[in-house]
Fold this protein.
Amino acid sequence: MTSEKEDFTLIEAILPILFLTAFLSFNVFVFGDAALDGSNQIVLLVSAAVAVIIAMLRGFSWDEVQAGMLKSINSTMPSILILLMIGAISGSWLVSGIVPAMIYYGILMLNPDFFLAAACVVCAVVSVATGSSWTTAATVGVALIGIGQTMGIHTGMVAGAILSGAYFGDKMSPLSDTTNLAPAMAGTDLFTHIKYMSLTTIPSIVVTLIIFIVLGLTAETNVDATYTLEVLSIIDEKFNINLGLFVVPIIVVVMIAKKVPALPSLFVGSILAILVAILFQKPILQEVSGLNSGGWEAMFVGAMKSVYGGIAVTTSNEMVNDLLSSGGMYGMLNTVWLIISAIIFGGVMEGTGMLRKIVTTLMSGIKSTGSLIAATAGTCTFFNFTASDQYLAIVVPGRMYADKYRNQGLAPENLSRTLEDSGTVTSVLVPWNTCGAYHAGVLGVTTGAFIPYCFFNIISPLMTIAFGYLNFKIRRLNADEVAS
């Protein structure tokens, strides 16, 4: 690649982002919540075309630009495959009675006043055990959404509590891919990173739990004992509810905790759920199949539909009907489309060096420790908005700022902590980011509805910036470490 190809002006580099921001704002104004149905995807593709035109005017060939796009798409393929498998889990865990059982027992056990804080804690524990915010949201998260709905709690609040807990666990678990990636980029070891990150992460989750407790005690809920009993009765009537159904999710959690990759773990979870459905929920499989006979053909059709397509278990209660429905793999295709569209834009911006031009310009004004940490957090968030992938939001700033931290005498764990405090957690706040799109699709709640309640995700980058400006718990290198 020639120097001419890399020689973008700042205006040229930032123009596609300005175009994207303005076009998305207009599009959301026109379409509202329906923007994710397809129009946002078109906006991202048109914005990518603007970036391509600028790059080609600077001497890039189409093959070079396409290579950048394909590289980015290839990097997200594992996430896309997991997303499709989550669709299979959603449907199979519904017809097997696993999710209905979670809702059933959750309604019996959870107090509405402390539900939000409890949901946050439960998701934090599961996410630490599995190392995955995605798995947490797709399993216990889906059930908690249903429980919250029966209690009359705003779904945005419930989703915010789920994601706050899930991302706390994702950050602090040694099994998490981002928790391993951040120290690798910064040049420190895993457990030094986790120990140092806890200094900002624990205060952030404590503040988050306090907010959820206050919200739970003050927010208006609509808990009607008669209505709750009706919901429980309907679920119990439609499904064979028993504690044995929890064996499947326990097996999945154990597999992931044993470092079995997420995709085969979820595949096994889906297959086991289908077997459980055949054993315990034959009437549900027949209903889902749409066939009159109850033989093997109905079992097969019902099982297949639960995995690949949209299904719904019909009851006399409209809200329960909403709880007992799933889009399966098919329901995830729009989210996959959004992710691919976003990654195409991010691939052009990253592959041509436009993003690097913007960030290196910003780095020129960094002087103090506080401004360096703030710039790092801002860069990670910027990449979540523009490259649309949390891995790029960790990897690229990690590579770019590593020498800057060392030159200012800062230990690498300062960088790794900042990468996770901002790159990992802010990804879910961007509707077209892989994480934001995924969680909105899985939980059935728009990003606009849950963003205001993702307190942990909002507080974390602010906490790490505050530590930087206050020079609190900032480890510095000694002379020998700087020289090495």
Notes: Strands lie at 311-312, 325-326. Residues 62-95 form the longest helix (34 residues). Residues 77-484 form one domain. The chain has one domain: 77-484.
